[in-house]
């Protein structure tokens, strides 16, 4: 098959994937015949397939949606919103209706769907999923490129020696969990600990953290830390969720005791039997895990802390604040790392309230307010050597792999006995979030010209949502987490299937988005 | 087609413009219809891909199985040098190729990991179908969607006083959605199905005592926390209870912080349901002999417990209870070692403010031992130890 001698006409020889156990080699018999003709046919087919995928994704959508009629005058093109079919064996683009006609006329049997890149085989009269072509399709749709050796955002995450990439090595060093162990378990409420449970669930279903712990990133067996290491407790919990068949709730006793024993002064007020803020617990857990896994230095808030620990690789990004002096127009940049983005709703609700009665807003509006609009401030300009009015703009310099967003759903009522109140305004958040407008590259020419690729690298998918119901000082936390394409609602020890509509209509307090492509 | 202004609808033909519509109306309708078509198209492609690939892989797994059966070689990795043909696929020299469309030739889906057939419909709730009892299915089941039950079809003993719930919480729950809790509450303990779980206990990492999970935080607050009012309360209680802690049946396990959880006298009158809850527990005690099998299992898990509980357990009179927290799957598979035993010291604790003085043995169950070999052998053992010590209940306050 693919191992035929290369012909001089084709310098690059495309290879069919080597056979894998438990998977058919080809999508269908007809594709098998195509790939087994000779190397030249295989080469043209695969290079043409890649060309079609590039046409689908990289250029103006008008091109891929314009079909030429098979019969009749050739200038009578049809632009359609619905899928067109791109012939794999010639450059024609046809509509679904004309597909059969093109097939009879030219004896071309394979077509690529313009929406999904899926391959249609006319002889099967069905879509076929060939392992070789699927690989290319998924890589192109996922990362925007066919090459797998691209510089990744976090090289350390993928640092691997080639020996360990070997399939043989992996299979001999892996213990497969049961088919039943899927990480979907509740966590018992140990008495007003739902604020911990929701954060733990969002960590458990965070693929970056899961892969870290399940690949022995932190082995509780040989951990040099104190006996009550919180990272060891996390490791144990990941093992329990992903390796046991237990479907009953999990008792997070080790996490809880690690939490009680921890001596974090900043979170002293958290350590109590009362109801607490999930966001504070998230910060606590992140800092604690950073200290257990990272360089040991305390993450100073506000500074540009450099660390390669799993928490930094997962959650930390960088913000850049540019202050422009109104007098001399000189810029000062300040870079800070951030664990999460906090979005105040207070101002925006007031603004909106004045404008109209529309008591709903979107996440993007909140982000716009914080990261695209400059505000005025006063500062001491080094250039002018005096205090000057200045324009300050904050934008994101480096996006994290997992973006956590907090909606500040509370406001302080001014007065003698200051009381906090909860803002219950619904904020619409998308399943798919484009963060490009909030980065410091948003206004560059690169962003405007090469929008597609840059935008893809800034696209996030919703991963989990933490919801608070009730009043400011008492209430209950629940979490929605995505596992693959399915959503689940976690309410302490209870896990239920959730509909996307439930998730999107929730009054989110914390949102976790994961970057679509790590490339 | 949206490009032709005259068309009344798009490709799906669902959103149709009225007869007297203007050209713009027609265009709007056909665009909307096309968009609808695309949404359905994308959904279908996704489902089609998952299903067809699963069936194709199933065909490959089956034919590979036949090939390895046909060859004499016992080496699992060796590629048998045989040619096998089924109606769905051909195995030849380590390569599997499809015959025909797997959606037509292959009816079931085999799990790529354990090679057992997948159960394709949930066993309960929405879209439920009875599984074929003669087939051993892969343990990954479709998730159950049924109000009041979780994705595995489990439900829990409704929280009540003495089971770590404050009055406030219960009332809150009632407001939130009574329906969700009712299935468990309406069952009497005698015919409580095996998928009704009760709350487990866990060991406090400091004092090594077993605490009902719902009180764990409170307990740790006073045991480890040492902060604020709780600490002083705990200290005060320790002093007053100090003598009885050693060997007494009554107060030995009372978490010092649990004073907070004591329901106010009014709570009993306010919610009659909670009383019902108590009565179920009483019943559960009597249902003991109906479950001899599980009782027999007790010695299996006892030794570990005793080791851990040398201080308290040996001095205590224990009553073995037969209620279990087996879930459905475990029941079907009859995995004996996963069975659980419940132990609760039976006693009546005089309750100060409560008008109804009542014995309330709490329902405590140990989570099943993890039965499969974990990635990390040594570590698992430690886990088991800490979890299995949950067999002993803390008595109700």
Automatic annotation (TrEMBL), chain A:
Gene3D superfamilies: Cysteine proteinases (3.90.70.10), Zinc/RING finger domain, C3HC4 (zinc finger) (3.30.40.10). Keywords: Hydrolase. It comes from the Eukaryota. GO terms for biological process: protein deubiquitination. One of its GO terms (molecular function) is cysteine-type deubiquitinase activity. This is Ubiquitin carboxyl-terminal hydrolase-like protein. Coiled coil: none annotated. The keyword ATP-binding does not apply. The keyword Magnesium does not apply. SUPFAM superfamilies: Cysteine proteinases (SSF54001), RING/U-box (SSF57850). Residues 185-516 form the USP domain. It comes from Podospora didyma. GO terms for cellular component: cytosol; nucleus.
TrEMBL record, chain B:
This is Transcriptional activator. Residues 252-269, 387-397 have a biased composition (Polar residues). Residues 278-288 have a biased composition (Acidic residues). Residues 344-366 have a biased composition (Low complexity). Residues 168-177 have a biased composition (Basic and acidic residues). It comes from Podospora didyma. Residues 158-195, 234-397 are annotated as: Disordered.
């Amino acid at each position: 098959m693919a191992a035929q001698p290369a012909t001089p006409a084709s310098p690059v020889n495309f290879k069919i994937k080597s056979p894998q156990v438990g998977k058919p080699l080809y999508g269908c018999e007809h594709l098998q015949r195509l790939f087994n003709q000779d190397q030249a046919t295989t080469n043209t087919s695969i290079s043409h397939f890649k060309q079609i995928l590039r046409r689908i994704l990289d250029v103006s959508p008008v091109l891929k949606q314009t079909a030429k009629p098979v019969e009749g005058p050739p200038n009578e093109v049809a632009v359609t919103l619905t899928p067109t079919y791109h012939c794999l064996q010639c450059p024609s683009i046809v509509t679904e209706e004309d597909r059969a006609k093109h097939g009879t006329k030219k004896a071309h049997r394979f077509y690529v769907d313009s929406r999904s890149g899926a391959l249609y085989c006319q002889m099967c009269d069905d879509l076929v999923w060939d392992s070789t072509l699927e690989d290319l399709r998924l890589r192109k749709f996922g990362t925007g490129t066919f090459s797998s050796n691209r510089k990744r955002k976090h090289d350390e995450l993928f640092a691997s020696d080639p020996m360990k990439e070997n399939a043989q090595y992996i299979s001999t060093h892996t213990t497969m969990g049961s088919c039943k162990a899927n990480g979907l378990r509740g966590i018992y409420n140990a008495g007003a600990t739902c604020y911990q449970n929701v954060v733990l669930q969002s960590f458990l279903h965070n693929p970056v953290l899961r892969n870290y712990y399940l690949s022995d990133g932190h082995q509780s067996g040989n951990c040099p830390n104190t006996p009550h290491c919180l990272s060891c407790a996390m490791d144990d919990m990941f093992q329990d969720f992903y390796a046991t068949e237990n479907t009953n709730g999990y008792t997070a006793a080790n996490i809880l005791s690690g939490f009680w024993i921890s001596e974090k002064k900043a979170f002293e007020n958290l350590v109590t039997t009362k109801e607490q803020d999930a966001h504070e617990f998230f910060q606590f857990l992140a800092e604690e895990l950073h200290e257990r896994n990272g360089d040991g230095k305390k993450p100073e808030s506000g500074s540009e802390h450099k660390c390669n620990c799993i928490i930094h690789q997962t959650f930390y990004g960088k913000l850049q604040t540019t202050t422009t002096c109104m007098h001399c127009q000189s810029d000062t940049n300040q870079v800070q790392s951030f664990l999460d983005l906090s979005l105040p709703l207070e101002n925006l609700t007031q603004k909106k309230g004045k404008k109209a009665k529309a008591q709903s807003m979107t996440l993007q509006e909140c982000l716009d307010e914080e990261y695209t609009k400059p505000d005025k401030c006063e500062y001491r300009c080094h250039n002018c050597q005096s205090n000057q009015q200045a324009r300050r703009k904050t934008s994101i310099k480096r996006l994290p792999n997992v973006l956590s967003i907090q909606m500040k759903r509370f406001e302080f009522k001014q007065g003698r006995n200051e009381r906090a109140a909860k803002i219950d305004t619904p904020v619409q958040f998308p399943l798919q979030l484009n963060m490009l407008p909030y980065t410091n590259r948003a206004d560059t020419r690169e962003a405007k010209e090469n929008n597609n690729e840059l935008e893809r690298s800034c696209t996030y998918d919703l991963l989990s949502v933490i919801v608070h119901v009730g009043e400011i000082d008492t209430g209950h936390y629940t979490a929605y987490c995505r596992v693959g394409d399915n959503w689940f609602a976690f309410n302490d020890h209870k896990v239920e299937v959730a509909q996307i509509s439930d998730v999107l209509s929730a009054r989110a307090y914390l949102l976790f988005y994961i970057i679509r492509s790590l490339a | 087609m949206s490009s032709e202004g005259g068309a009344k609808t798009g490709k799906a033909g669902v959103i149709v413009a009225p007869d007297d519509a203007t050209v713009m109306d027609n265009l709007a309708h056909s665009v909307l219809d096309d968009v609808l078509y695309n949404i359905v198209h994308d959904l279908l492609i996704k489902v089609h891909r998952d299903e067809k690939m699963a069936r194709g892989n199933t065909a490959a797994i089956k034919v590979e199985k036949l090939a390895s059966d046909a060859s004499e070689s016992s080496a699992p990795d060796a590629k048998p040098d045989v040619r096998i043909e089924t109606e769905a696929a051909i195995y030849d020299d380590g390569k599997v190729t499809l015959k025909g469309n797997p959606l037509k030739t292959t009816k079931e889906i085999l799990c790529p990991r354990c090679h057992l057939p997948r159960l394709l419909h949930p066993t309960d709730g929405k879209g439920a179908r009875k599984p074929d009892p003669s087939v051993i299915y892969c343990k990954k089941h479709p998730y159950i969607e049924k109000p009041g039950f979780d994705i595995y079809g489990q439900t829990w003993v409704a929280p009540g006083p003495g089971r770590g719930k404050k009055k406030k919480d219960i009332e809150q729950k009632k407001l939130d959605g009574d329906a969700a809790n009712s299935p468990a509450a309406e069952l009497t303990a005698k015919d409580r199905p095996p998928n009704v779980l009760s709350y487990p206990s866990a060991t406090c990492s400091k004092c090594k005592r077993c605490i009902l999970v719902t009180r764990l935080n409170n307990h740790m607050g006073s045991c480890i926390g040492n902060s604020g009012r709780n600490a002083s309360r705990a200290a005060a209680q320790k002093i007053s209870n100090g003598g009885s802690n050693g060997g007494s049946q009554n107060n030995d396990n009372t978490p010092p912080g649990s004073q907070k959880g004591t329901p106010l006298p009014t709570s009993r009158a306010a919610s009659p349901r909670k009383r019902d809850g108590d009565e179920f527990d009483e019943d559960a005690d009597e249902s003991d002999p109906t479950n001899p099998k599980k009782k027999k299992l007790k010695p299996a898990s006892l030794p570990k417990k005793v080791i851990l509980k040398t201080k308290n357990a040996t001095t205590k009179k224990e009553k073995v209870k037969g209620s279990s927290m087996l879930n459905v799957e475990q029941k079907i598979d009859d995995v004996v070692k996963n069975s659980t035993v419940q132990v609760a010291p039976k006693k009546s604790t005089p309750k100060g403010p409560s008008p109804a003085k009542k014995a309330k043995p709490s329902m405590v169950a140990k989570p099943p031992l993890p039965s499969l070999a974990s990635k990390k052998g040594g570590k698992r053992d430690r886990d088991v130890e800490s979890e299995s010590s949950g067999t002993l209940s803390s008595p109700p306050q």
